[in-house]
């Protein structure tokens, strides 16, 4: 998909096509038995927050809306919350930049490609996988493919969502083998189109994340390169629009919403059966398949650290060198922590 799809109406149309904008209850009614319903209180000292409705974007069916209903994380919030579903990161970053969403999580590449086209957003937090030794995305080849190593990708066609974390995996993997994007044929396809091209034999390889990767493996695909360090990061990045961050009152309310969202994921990581059910609800996949990819959705949230900025800067510089972006991106200039200093959702309440 073209990275130029920055127009607000086109972004909203994409959100409507692939997701939902459903209000999550912001009152305490029906909160009995919900483990996080009383964790944060009502924040009654901020009556002005009642004027806000925050739209939270999810990238890949992470169960956020279903978990909100299960945990009651937003039941006593003094603002309203909606959830928007995206199929991958670049459109989510565009929606954050235009103010169509207020907070959303993406992989390591979308903030880079978004900033390279001067979108108005900042990175405001990081989600870190609890099991960073398990790849959450891979470069796959079809069942029976003769391709056994990266060198054999020379001249071959690789499907990958443009500007996604999988795009970064491909770029780093090629570089590790002394190859460049010019040595292969990058076929920029969104996840659904990539799945069709891969299953029909129209491409020689596919770079994609779970659960799509796991489902393809179940059908016979083979992992050529797993998405693990040093070729891939094991963190995702939360982005928020500059217009929210520039308003101190709204910024404080958004930080509260961020902590509630982080708390529900930390709770889910400690309750895998309920987390798997939430993923099943949002992905529409069998419960057994949701449990098989559960590690992708088990993480904790922290502020952005200097090591994150350094990793993103290195990746950004690689994209520029490979002519995948057209301008230098200074990661530190698009980073604003909004969580309390030292915040870590894994150490919070609601266990």
Characterize the overall form: globular
- The helix tally amounts to 12
Q: The biggest beta sheet, please?
A: 7 strands, mixed
Please provide the count of β strands.
Answer: 12
Named CATH topology of the largest domain? D-Maltodextrin-Binding Protein, domain 2
Number of domains: 2
CATH class of the largest domain: Alpha Beta
Termini separation (Å)? 40 Å
CATH structural architecture of the largest domain: 3-Layer(aba) Sandwich
Low-confidence stretches: 1-29
Order of strands, main sheet, comes to 1-3-2-4-11-5-12
Binned, the helix content reads 25-40%
Element pattern in H and E: HEEHEHEHEEEHEHEHEEHHHHEH
Computed structural class: alpha/beta
CATH superfamily of the largest domain: Periplasmic binding protein-like II
Please state roughly what percent of the residues sit in beta strands, choosing from under 5%, 5-15%, 15-25%, 25-35%, 35-45% or over 45%: 15-25%
Q: Give average pLDDT, whole number.
A: 87
Radius of gyration: 20 Å
